[in-house]
Fold these 2 entries.
Entry 1:
Amino acid sequence: MQQITAPELAAWLADEKRARPFLLDVRENWEFDTCHIEGATLMPMQTIPARIDDLDEDAEIVCICHHGARSLQVAAFLERHGFAKVTNLTGGVHAWALQVDESMPKY
């Protein structure tokens, strides 16, 4: 599994020459409502097993949570189920708020 920092992800999203990854936010609804990276899709961690068929196995997927622990677990789960292009956002949205978008609410 790949790891990516918040600044690296921001650069990827800003690069029009690169295909945009699928941003999979695995936090809870209230967390997503508090703050999220633009374009992210919410799929809370506990729903992933039941909704795995909703995900494109061939897509570049970046897993996102608050600090990076839950998303790391989801990324490992996806890899065990045949997803080859999975990346974990190290530090999660908290790192994004500190390093990329200081206007993002923190919790």
Note: Strands lie at 2-4, 22-25, 41-42, 61-64, 86-89.
Entry 2:
Amino acid sequence: MRRRDVLAGVLALAASPASARPPIPNHGTPRELLSPPFVDGDGRDLTLADFEGRVVLLNIWATWCPPCREEMPTLDALQARLGGSDFHVLPLSIDRAGLEPVRRFYRETGIRNLDLYIAEDTRAMLAWAVVGLPTTILIDRIGRERGRLAGPAEWNSPEAVAQISALIDERKQ
């Protein structure tokens, strides 16, 4: 095969529409995951261990982040569609001003299906190796990282729903 043919194939793959690809690149092997403490909208202290038994889509975001704000309605729609005893969208805000800006943002944008969570920004970003916002981590039922995406996505797209549904359907390992 000629070098030119290989290059053409790579460029064609890269040029495919983003919506046709799964939104979260999967890891070949699940990775152990740290969990710093965070707080829910009722002031309860939590960690990821509190969600064990469910697939979790952890989205680390902030109200001051434009791409984060744009993708939040799609996360809300995903939670409405798949959320329940087997799956939970965990939108973890790192806003330094606390929960009030998040509550205000939810009211202003009509977010109705997502719970409120907040974490100390530096601690969360270091523990989860976040280098930019939003960062989304797909977590299996036993708390392992199965995939990660830095940057926004359309979480209620057919591709995202299919990818997450496949993980939900996996038997507990």
Note: Residues 1-20 have pLDDT under 50 and may be disordered.
